[in-house]
């Protein structure tokens, strides 16, 4: 087994609290399937036979039931419950350390995409990469659509991602919020990579392929709590740092050394197989032009990305994105079983959950109606999300 | 030379070019005291001829050569050249202006004389290129049709760091919009280790390339507004000032600048001695085709013929038996070479006399030089009429200016610049930043006639002088190592990078240790100590 998939489904959906108050985020329906079904299905299609799913302890049973019984997933699923207070994604990975035997594929439960994973894996294999990300162009319509529920939401923040001249290696990553007036580049980095293409229209899909040593490193350094927020930027930045040389010579004798705490360096984890190093040294393949330096300039940590150019990819982590993903999945209308619809009802580009009843002369457009919702007569519902067990009175619009 | 007649052709869109035939700096001192830089020979042909040839072959029909320092020499040169013949494909007009100190002044002068009618090519007189300018001009014009405010297209050559024609002085980093090739940020690097870019570069443009792999050829296609803008704004001295100014005022004025990157063609500017060396080698190894030593671009009688290993010989060269011309050698007309002499990677001018058992490696010897037996010359420039007596050794990095005589049996130190006459003032008006202090020194042999040329250290531009000294032969290697060490010491501050730079830390600690040590020796009271340490922060 080359990769061990890990699905992170312990998120609480802090960006869509209105919806996740009753229902765990992973089980929110997208096109009448729970959200978590999409990444699981993607893995299943790619041929994985087992997966680790990180869930909150409190909803472990619920999710398990939803996946195994309702969606009839045949993959072997290994549920790992984590306690409520330990919410960082990196923390979750740290807990999994004992289960992880190979490189891992981390995917978030809110990713709805039709990307074929082998392309990502190919990038990972080709460059023997430490970390490979999936990036996707931010759909433009997605910025403008009105958010159901809350008005005047801020625009999603832009991430800036810098690539090398082949467009694979990630050299630079920063988000709009982190930058103040300027951003800096080291001259040494520019020397190695004189051509850096910075794109701003890409989003990180939270799908990562990582080397096993990254988990070891995580287990060792306790300060990182989030994968996207801390670990990934750290790794991208560390690509260009030189491993510390072991400091053997002691300082002059008159300065007394109290106790030098030896902090394990990230590079001590990233050590490579000797054979692999040798193979690379003997190979004529090289990843850059223009100078006679060794392949990868001797960088031990290398981050690459696969940019999905066509196809569909949405992260349903905000209300607007969630709404959008629903629309994308059910391209026109989707009406589930047990729904009663009254006379002269028009439903456009909407999804209606199970056992709903919709009164006469309703107009429903661009909306999502969850299970067991009763909509009374002459309602006009547009661009909204209506959660489970709601009742909507007559003539509401 | 007949503007009246040309008037009719104006409608046909004559492509004009402005050649700045002055470098406005002292990189080639002391050689440039007697001859302007553009007339110095590169592979035995004056630089200016290459530039003019390049321009005329790319369809330029009217060229203004702008000269200031020793301008009458340039004028005479142009008058005697093939460009002044009736068969010449373009009109070359020298424009003289003695008081001109920068490219900005030159363009202001051009604006005042209103010589420019349409888009023109702006180029330095020491540029070598074989770019197809037509396409670039075409592209520029198309862009102008769409957007009147696109002022300039700068031509860059793709050259990754480490490319030998990259000039260490003029490294440039740019942010270019990927799809349109528009320049959104432009800066020189100098000695900075970290480069800061304004965030707007990223915010305002979707897809930006940060490019450090470009070589500035100093060729630009300018719109006719450019000289006017120079006239309006007296601060603009160089093209860099101009580009910076335009980019800063972009929002107000709406003017834009574009780049054009050439990949396979050759372009470079001889801006200092290192570049002189690099470009000479490129010419000899035919990278600049069709501008090669044997292409006879200035109609000389004695043309060169190219042999194996890029050995170019003139017809009337006298080679004694047993002399070896290894590879990449040019020997000009009327020169003679004695037996057992070894020459490689070098250019020998016309009418030189080279004795027996001489070794010449990587050197440039201009016309009428006399080199006697048993001399060794490595990586040096010897100007016209230099005389080396027997047994002289010239070590790497040396420049021997006009009429210098050295020897016999003398070994010159490395990187020495010699002139034949002590120079007092009187020259300083033209190039104020380098006072020349010369002194007679006895170590140039009994028959020697040479003085060490020094640029004075009281100049305000320290860094520039440093470069002048390093320029020839010795590569600037130090920076790389510093860079690595700074990264290693940076290891400690993880993601929070915003704190003090590492050098400051080190400074602070060493300072504190010094203070503490002093306190112990002098028994300073603790309170005073604390105060002192706090003040160091």
TrEMBL record, chain A:
Keywords annotated in UniProt: Cytoplasm, Initiation factor, Protein biosynthesis
Annotated Nucleotidyl transferase domain residues: 5-135
Source species, domain of life: Eukaryota
Main location: cytoplasm
Entry annotated with the keyword Protein biosynthesis: yes
Keyword check for Protein biosynthesis: yes
Protein family according to the UniProt entry: Belongs to the eIF-2B gamma/epsilon subunits family.
Record's subunit section: Component of the translation initiation factor 2B (eIF2B) complex which is a heterodecamer of two sets of five different subunits: alpha, beta, gamma, delta and epsilon. Subunits alpha, beta and delta comprise a regulatory subcomplex and subunits epsilon and gamma comprise a catalytic subcomplex. Within the complex, the hexameric regulatory complex resides at the center, with the two heterodimeric catalytic subcomplexes bound on opposite sides.
Name of the protein: Translation initiation factor eIF2B subunit gamma
Source organism (scientific name): Tegillarca granosa (Malaysian cockle)
The organism's taxonomic lineage, starting at the top: Eukaryota, Metazoa, Spiralia, Lophotrochozoa, Mollusca
TrEMBL record, chain B:
Keywords for this protein: Cytoplasm, Initiation factor, Protein biosynthesis
Every EIF2B subunit epsilon/gamma LbH domain range: 308-412
Pfam families: LbH_EIF2B, NTP_transferase
Subcellular localization, as worded in the UniProt entry: Cytoplasm, Cytosol
InterPro entries for this protein: eIF-2B_epsilon_N, eIF2B_epsilon, LbH_EIF2B3/5, NTP_transferase_dom, Nucleotide-diphossugar_trans, Trimer_LpxA-like_sf
Domain Nucleotidyl transferase stretches: 26-152
Main localisation: cytoplasm
Signal peptide: none
Top-rank lineage group of the source organism: Eukaryota
Keyword Cytoplasm: yes
Self-association and partners: Component of the translation initiation factor 2B (eIF2B) complex which is a heterodecamer of two sets of five different subunits: alpha, beta, gamma, delta and epsilon. Subunits alpha, beta and delta comprise a regulatory subcomplex and subunits epsilon and gamma comprise a catalytic subcomplex. Within the complex, the hexameric regulatory complex resides at the center, with the two heterodimeric catalytic subcomplexes bound on opposite sides.
Family that this chain belongs to: Belongs to the eIF-2B gamma/epsilon subunits family.
Protein's recorded name: EIF-2B GDP-GTP exchange factor subunit epsilon
Lineage, opening ranks: Eukaryota, Metazoa, Spiralia, Lophotrochozoa, Mollusca
